[in-house]
Request: fold
Amino acid sequence: MSDRLLTDQTTAFLAGGGEMGERIRAFDWSKTPLGPPAHWPQSLRSAVSILLPSKAQIVLFWGRDLVTLYNDAYRPVFGAKHPDVLGMPARQAWSEIWQGGLEVLFEGVLATGEAYWASSRPFFLRRHGFLEETFFDVSYDPVRDETGQVGGIFCIVSETTGSVLGERRLKTLRELAARAAGVRSAKEACQVAAATLGENDTDVAFALFYLLDEVGRQATLAGASGLRPGGPGSPASIDLQDRAAPWALGEAARTGGPVVVSDLSARFGPLPGGAWPEASEQAVVLPMTKPGQADLAGFVVAGVSPRLALTASTRTSWTCWPATWARRSPTRAPTRKRRSGPRRFRTWTGPRPRSSAT
Reply:
């Protein structure tokens, strides 16, 4: 029997599998502890043949070094690490969580031969250039080799980050609505709202509430959490006609919609990251209006958690804050009218104040 025919027959288990099937077939496995696929044990072949065509998010870690193999569905889990992590030991593929708990979980599966399962387990993954707060349903199942020992770990996961964060944000909205009912002035409303957002510092790194004057030109800080009032990132007042002023309140007033301000450290120096040690680098400016009116009452400046991406779902949920709060609070609306139309997020590219203090 020719070597070519032998290879075709013994690697048929790698057929299909979309992009990852192609990558696994093209990968030089001889440079890894697994060796060429033609010589893989049947237990490994069977596991890979199940993994490749599956629509579930699956990664397989095999051998003493727990070499990484995964399918198309699992690619978003690795994010920007894909495809470089193919063939890597698990300790390198998931280096950011290896010593933080993953090593212990895997060692338990390998030593006991018992599966590990968890629902919405938190993981802090560096898959998009920053340490990201994520949640997954996970099942880590042992795969026994020809010796009867555990030869690898078959990991089936399902990301639940969206649902966990969604529930957390709904709780904040409920708290905003409940606490707004008892306030008696616009300033008190802003102070209570800032304190409420401060309780969710895993999502909101800091929050500033500004109220407009009667003519709609000067915004005065009325409530703050996470930032000391009067600092470089939280001035006591902002002139909306000053294009060099921080936070792009004038831009939000002109467009009537949310504005994203980025590169906060370059603009203000390091700003607090809420519950996390990293500095917040993005904030969203949200106009506040009274229900059924086009008049602006003020603005919310919300710092984005350094461990969360500013996704479409995040933006949508945050635009609900001003309406939820204004619906029950006595926030006064002055004469400046907000432009009608869809509330599209805009990115501010205005001047950057030079400061190293927070």
